[in-house]
C-alpha cells in the first residue's frame, strides 16, 4: 500500500503547475487603414511568444465618446494593464485617469492625452516627423516654393505634433511658405473636394505635405485630375505601403513605426516589474526613390523571418498537444491504479492481478518518463531557436540601420556629383566665350585672312561649338536627373520636322560619299511633339549613324504610322559595323562609349540623352543590330499627349536651331555702320572674370565710351554715380549677383531708365524667364557672338531714343505735369513739381534742383539727358514757356506780368524766347487766341 501511495505522490508532482494568466486591455481608436492594422499585427506577433498573456481589443471606430465607454468597460472587466491609442486627446483623458487612479498601469500608444497620469508612452515623435518633413521639403524644392498641408483629425495629438514640427522646421527656410491648410480628418474621401478647391486657388503650389499616406494617395488622385502630376510633389507619413513611393504616387513617405510590438514589450516589462523607460520615442526615416527598393527588400526579409518563427511556433504547439495527450493517458492510468488498490483492500485474492497491473504501470511510467525527457529536450531546442531568431532580428535591425546610413551618404554623394557637373558645365561657358568670340570676330571682320587661316579658324570654331554642345548635353542630363526638363508639345507635321533635320546632314554625308535616303510612308503625319526635345534626339541618332557609317555607305531614315494609328515610328538605319554583344546591354548608359571605335569617338552621352528625352516624351527608343551589318535605332512616339505635356494655347514652341555661324554672319551682314569712336554714349561693363571683362571692353570701345567694374557692389555704385547709357552685367558673381544688381538698378529712380543686358552661362528657360521678369532688357547666354552683342546694344539704345521722344511729346502738351506711373515717369513728375514750385525765381539753378532731389549736379544732368535727350536748363526753359502760354490766355494778366510770373528777368528776354519756341510773339499769340468782345 505504501508503495502505491508513493507512486501516486510522484505522479502528482510530475504535473506542471498552471502559469498565471496576465490580462491586457487595448482600446484602439480605429482599426481602419494599413497603419492601424499593422499595429494590431505587431501586437499579435509579439504575444505569440507569450501564451500566458491574454489581449482584449476594443475598436472605437474614431469616436471619442465610444472610446471613453470602452476604456471603462475594460477596467470593469478586470485587466492587469491598459493600452490606449486615443482618437482625441481631451475627451479620452478622464477615462484614462480613472484607470490610472485604480492602480492599473496605462501605456499610451502613438497618441498622447492631456494629462501626465500614465505609466509609459510608446510611439513616434510627431514633432520630429513634422520637422523632418520640413527639412526634406526644403531640399526637394531648393528652399523656394509654396506648400499645402493636409491635417489629420482635430484634437489628435498626432495632428498637433506634426503640424507644429512642420511649422517650426519651415522657419529655417524663409523661401518656403504654407499657402493653405486642408483639414483632412484622416478621411481620404471628404478631403478631396477641399484639396481640389485649394489647388485651384493656389496654382503656385509645388508640394503637398499629408499627415498620412492614405490622405496622400487621395491627394495624388486630385493632382492627377488637375493635370499637375509633373509640377506638384506629395510627401506622406507612415511608410507602410512602399509601392506608393516606388510607383511615384508619393515623392516620399516618412516611416512612422506602428509600434505594436514595442507596446507589448513595454507592457510586459511593467507587469514583470522589470526596468522600463517612460518615454519610448521611435525614430523617423525618410523613404524616397533612393532607398525604397532597399526598404522593400528589408521588409520582405523580415516577413520571411516572421514566417519561419510562425512555423517553429506551430511545431511547438503540436509538441505541447502531444505532451497534454500523454499527460491525460498518465492521469487515466493513475485513476485505474487507485481503483485497483481499493479493490485489493477488500479482496486480497486479486493481489496477483494487482501485481501485474503494477508491473504494467511501472512500464508505462518508464515510457512517460521517456516522453517527459523528450519534451524537456524539445523545449530546450525551442528556446535555442527563439534565441537564434531574436539574434537574427537584432542583426537585421543593425543591417537596416547601416543600409539607411549608407543610403543617406550615397544620396549626398550623388547630389554633390550632380552639383559638380552642373557648376563645371556653367564654368566652361566663360572660357568658351573668350574662344568663340574672337574667332567669330576674325572670321566676320578680317577680309585679309588667307584661305589656310580661314580653314584653321573654322576648325577652331567647329570644335568650340562641339565643346559647347557637350556642355549643353551635360546640362540636359542634369535637368533629366532632377526632373526639370519639361515637355511643351505643339501639334505639327512630323514628316517636315524630321526632313529638316535630315537636310542638315546631306552635305557632310556627300563629302564622305555616303548616301542618305529619307523614306516617309505619308507626306503628312500629324502628332503632338516638343521640337526642342526631339531635335536633340534625332540629331544624336543621325550623328551616330554618320560617325559609324564607312565611306560609300548608306543611311536610311524611314517614317511611318504604326498599324493602329496611335503612334509614329521613326527609324535610322546605317551600314556600319553594328553593335557587339558585349556593348548591347550598355548602349543607353551614361558615359558608356563601347568597344567599337570610330572616327571622332564621342563622349558616351548622346544615346543616353536621346533615350532619356524620348522617355520624357512618353515614347520608346529601341535598337537592333547584327555585327558587320549595321544598326537600326527606332523612335516610337505617341501621336497624342496628355494635356499637362502640351504647350499653353498660343505659345509656339520652335525647334531649337543649332549654332550656324554662316547664317548668323549673313543675318548680321546688313547691320548699320558703327557710330564714330568719339561718342557720348557710356556703357558700364560689370563682369567678375578679368578676361571676359577685358574682352568686352575691347570690343565695345571702338563704338562707345566704356567703364568697367569687377563685382556687383562696385558696379552698382558706378551706375548711380555715372548714370551710364547702358549696362552689360554678368549674372553669376560673388557677393552681389547680376540679378540683384539688376533689381537694385530698376528700383532706384536714378538708374531705372538704363537698359540692362545680362550675360550668363545659365541657359535654362526658367533661368532666362527669371532674368526677364527681374527687368533685363536682353538675356544672352555664353558663349555669345560679339557682333550680335554689339547690334543688340545699338537696338536697345535706338529703342531708348524712341522712348525719350515719347516723354518729350508728353512735356509739350498743354499740361506740363507727367503722370507718375513707372519709375522714369515718377522722376519726371517730381522734377516738374520742383521746377513749377520755383517758377517765379529768375535765378533758379541746376544745383538748386539737384539739391532738392538729393543727387549731384552730374547725376541730374545725365538722368535728364538720358530720359529726355535735353539739358536741365532747356527743360526748365520749356516748362517756363509752356506755363507762359497758358497764362497768356488769361486777359486779366499783362504780358509783363506773365513774363515775371514765369521767371523771366526782362520782358525782351521773354518775348525773344517765346518767339524762338513757337515762331510767334506773345502779343500775336494773345491776339490770335483771345476773341475781342462784340
Question: What this model shows, in words?
Answer:
It is an enzyme of class 2 (transferase). This is histidine kinase. It catalyses: ATP + protein L-histidine = ADP + protein N-phospho-L-histidine. Pfam families: HATPase_c, HisKA, HTH_18, Peripla_BP_4, Response_reg. By secondary structure, the protein is of the alpha/beta class. It has five domains: 126-252, Rossmann fold (3-Layer(aba) Sandwich); 306-411; 476-662, Heat Shock Protein 90 (2-Layer Sandwich); 671-800, 3-Layer(aba) Sandwich (Rossmann fold), CATH 3.40.50; 812-929, Homeodomain-like (Arc Repressor Mutant, subunit A, Orthogonal Bundle). The protein has 30 helices and 24 strands. It has a six-stranded parallel β-sheet with strand order 2-1-3-4-5-11, with helices on both faces. It has a six-stranded mixed β-sheet with strand order 7-6-8-9-10-12, with helices on both faces. Helix 7 packs across helix 8. The longest helix has 95 residues, at 351-445. It starts with a helix and ends in a 5-residue tail after the last helix.
Task: Describe the SSE topology.
Blueprint: H1 2-14, E1 22-28, H2 34-47, E2 53-59, H3 64-76, E3 81-85, H4 89-101, E4 106-109, E5 120-124, H5 126-140, E6 145-151, H6 157-170, E7 176-183, H7 188-201, E8 205-210, H8 213-225, E9 233-238, H9 243-246, E10 252-255, H10 260-271, E11 279-282, E12 285-288, H11 292-346, H12 351-445, H13 451-482, E13 490-493, H14 494-504, H15 506-511, E14 515-520, E15 526-529, H16 531-548, E16 554-561, E17 567-574, H17 606-616, E18 620-625, E19 631-638, H18 661-668, E20 682-686, H19 690-700, E21 705-709, H20 712-722, E22 726-730, H21 738-747, E23 756-760, H22 765-774, E24 778-781, H23 786-811, H24 823-837, H25 846-853, H26 857-868, H27 872-887, H28 895-901, H29 907-918, H30 922-929
Parallel strand pairs: 1-2, 1-3, 3-4, 4-5, 5-11, 6-7, 6-8, 8-9, 9-10, 14-16, 20-21, 20-22, 22-23, 23-24
Antiparallel strand pairs: 10-12, 13-15, 16-17, 17-19, 18-19
Helix pairs in contact: 2-10, 3-4, 5-6, 7-8, 11-12, 12-13, 13-17, 14-16, 16-17, 20-21, 25-26
Amino acid at each position: 500500500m505504501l508503495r502505491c501511495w508513493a507512486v501516486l505522490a510522484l505522479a502528482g508532482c510530475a504535473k506542471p503547475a498552471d502559469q498565471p494568466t496576465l490580462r491586457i486591455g487595448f482600446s484602439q481608436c480605429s482599426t481602419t487603414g494599413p497603419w492601424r492594422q499593422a499595429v494590431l499585427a505587431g501586437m499579435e506577433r509579439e504575444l505569440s511568444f507569450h501564451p500566458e498573456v491574454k489581449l482584449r481589443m476594443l475598436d472605437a471606430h474614431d469616436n471619442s465618446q465610444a472610446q471613453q465607454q470602452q476604456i471603462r468597460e475594460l477596467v470593469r472587466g478586470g485587466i492587469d494593464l491598459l493600452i490606449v491609442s486615443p482618437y482625441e486627446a481631451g475627451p479620452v483623458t478622464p477615462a484614462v485617469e480613472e484607470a490610472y487612479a485604480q492602480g492599473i498601469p496605462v501605456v499610451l500608444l502613438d497618441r498622447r492625452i492631456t494629462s501626465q497620469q500614465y505609466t509609459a508612452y510608446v510611439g513616434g515623435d510627431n514633432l520630429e516627423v513634422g520637422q523632418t518633413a520640413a527639412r526634406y521639403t526644403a531640399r526637394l524644392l531648393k528652399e523656394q516654393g509654396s506648400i499645402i498641408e493636409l491635417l489629420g483629425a482635430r484634437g489628435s495629438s498626432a495632428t498637433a505634433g506634426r503640424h507644429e514640427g512642420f511649422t517650426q522646421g519651415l522657419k529655417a527656410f524663409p523661401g518656403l511658405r504654407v499657402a493653405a491648410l486642408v483639414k483632412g480628418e484622416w478621411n481620404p474621401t471628404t478631403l478631396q473636394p477641399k484639396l481640389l478647391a485649394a489647388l485651384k486657388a493656389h496654382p503656385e503650389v509645388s508640394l503637398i505635405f499629408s499627415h498620412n499616406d492614405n490622405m496622400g494617395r487621395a491627394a495624388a488622385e486630385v493632382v492627377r485630375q488637375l493635370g499637375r502630376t509633373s509640377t506638384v510633389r506629395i510627401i506622406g507619413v507612415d511608410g507602410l505601403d512602399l509601392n506608393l513611393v516606388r510607383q511615384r504616387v508619393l515623392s516620399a513617405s516618412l516611416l512612422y513605426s506602428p509600434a505594436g510590438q514595442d507596446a507589448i514589450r513595454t507592457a510586459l516589462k511593467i507587469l514583470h516589474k522589470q526596468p522600463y523607460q517612460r518615454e519610448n520615442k521611435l525614430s523617423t526615416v525618410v523613404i524616397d526613390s533612393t532607398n525604397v527598393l532597399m526598404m522593400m527588400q528589408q521588409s520582405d526579409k523580415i516577413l520571411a523571418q516572421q514566417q519561419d518563427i510562425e512555423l517553429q511556433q506551430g511545431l511547438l504547439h503540436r509538441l505541447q498537444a502531444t505532451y497534454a495527450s500523454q499527460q491525460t493517458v498518465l492521469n487515466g492510468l493513475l485513476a485505474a491504479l487507485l481503483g485497483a488498490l481499493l479493490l485489493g483492500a477488500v479482496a486480497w485474492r486479486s493481489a496477483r492481478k494487482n501485481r501485474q497491473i503494477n508491473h504494467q504501470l511501472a512500464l508505462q511510467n518508464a515510457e512517460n518518463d521517456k516522453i517527459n525527457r523528450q519534451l524537456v529536450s524539445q523545449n530546450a531546442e525551442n528556446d535555442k531557436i527563439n534565441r537564434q531568431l531574436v539574434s537574427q532580428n537584432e542583426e537585421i535591425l543593425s543591417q537596416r540601420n547601416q543600409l539607411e546610413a549608407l543610403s543617406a551618404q550615397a544620396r549626398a554623394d550623388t547630389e554633390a556629383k550632380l552639383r559638380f557637373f552642373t557648376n563645371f558645365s556653367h564654368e566652361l561657358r566663360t572660357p568658351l566665350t573668350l574662344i568663340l568670340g574672337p574667332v567669330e570676330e576674325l572670321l566676320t571682320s578680317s577680309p585679309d585672312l588667307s584661305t589656310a587661316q580661314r580653314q584653321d579658324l573654322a576648325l577652331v570654331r567647329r570644335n568650340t561649338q562641339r565643346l559647347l554642345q557637350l556642355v549643353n548635353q551635360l546640362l540636359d542630363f542634369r535637368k533629366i536627373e532632377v526632373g526639370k526638363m519639361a515637355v511643351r508639345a505643339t501639334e505639327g507635321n512630323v514628316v517636315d520636322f524630321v526632313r529638316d533635320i535630315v537636310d542638315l546632314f546631306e552635305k557632310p554625308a556627300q563629302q564622305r560619299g555616303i548616301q542618305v535616303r529619307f523614306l516617309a510612308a505619308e507626306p503628312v503625319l500629324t502628332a503632338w511633339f516638343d521640337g526642342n526635345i526631339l531635335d536633340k534626339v534625332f540629331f544624336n541618332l543621325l550623328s551616330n549613324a554618320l560617325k559609324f557609317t564607312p565611306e560609300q555607305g548608306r543611311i536610311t531614315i524611314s517614317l511611318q504610322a504604326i498599324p493602329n494609328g496611335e503612334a509614329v515610328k521613326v527609324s535610322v538605319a546605317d551600314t556600319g559595323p553594328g553593335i557587339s554583344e558585349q556593348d548591347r546591354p550598355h548602349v543607353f548608359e551614361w558615359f558608356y562609349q563601347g568597344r567599337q571605335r570610330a572616327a571622332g569617338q564621342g563622349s558616351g552621352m548622346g544615346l543616353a540623352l536621346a533615350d532619356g528625352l524620348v522617355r520624357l516624351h512618353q515614347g520608346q527608343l529601341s535598337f537592333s543590330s547584327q555585327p558587320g551589318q549595321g544598326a537600326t535605332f527606332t523612335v516610337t512616339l505617341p501621336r497624342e499627349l496628355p494635356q499637362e505635356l502640351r504647350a499653353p494655347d498660343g505659345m509656339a514652341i520652335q525647334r531649337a536651331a543649332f549654332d550656324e555661324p554662316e547664317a548668323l554672319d549673313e543675318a548680321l551682314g546688313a547691320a548699320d555702320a558703327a557710330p564714330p569712336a568719339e561718342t557720348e554714349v557710356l556703357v558700364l561693363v560689370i563682369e567678375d572674370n578679368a578676361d571676359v571683362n577685358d574682352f568686352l571692353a575691347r570690343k565695345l570701345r571702338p563704338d562707345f565710351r566704356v567703364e568697367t567694374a569687377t563685382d556687383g557692389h562696385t558696379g552698382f555704385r558706378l551706375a548711380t554715380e555715372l548714370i551710364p547709357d547702358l549696362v552689360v552685367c554678368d549674372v553669376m558673381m560673388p557677393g552681389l549677383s547680376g540679378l540683384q544688381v539688376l533689381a537694385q538698378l530698376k528700383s532706384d529712380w536714378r538708374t531705372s531708365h538704363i537698359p540692362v543686358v545680362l550675360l550668363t552661362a545659365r541657359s535654362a528657360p526658367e533661368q532666362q524667364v527669371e532674368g526677364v521678369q527681374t527687368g533685363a532688357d536682353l538675356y544672352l547666354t555664353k558663349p555669345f557672338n560679339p557682333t550680335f552683342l554689339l547690334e543688340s546694344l545699338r537696338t536697345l539704345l535706338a529703342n531708348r531714343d524712341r522712348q525719350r521722344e515719347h516723354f518729350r511729346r508728353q512735356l509739350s502738351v498743354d499740361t506740363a505735369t507727367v503722370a507718375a506711373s513707372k519709375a522714369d515717369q515718377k522722376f519726371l513728375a517730381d522734377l516738374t513739381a520742383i521746377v513749377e514750385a520755383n517758377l517765379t525765381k529768375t535765378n533758379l539753378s541746376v544745383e538748386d534742383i539737384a539739391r532738392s532731389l538729393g543727387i549731384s549736379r552730374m547725376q541730374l544732368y545725365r538722368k535728364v539727358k538720358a530720359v529726355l535727350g535735353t539739358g536741365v536748363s532747356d527743360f526748365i526753359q520749356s516748362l517756363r514757356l509752356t506755363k507762359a502760354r497758358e497764362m497768356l490766355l488769361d486777359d486779366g494778366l499783362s504780358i509783363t506780368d506773365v513774363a515775371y510770373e514765369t521767371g523771366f528777368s526782362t520782358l525782351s528776354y521773354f518775348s525773344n524766347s517765346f518767339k524762338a519756341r513757337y515762331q510767334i510773339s506773345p502779343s500775336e499769340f494773345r491776339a490770335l487766341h483771345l476773341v475781342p468782345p462784340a
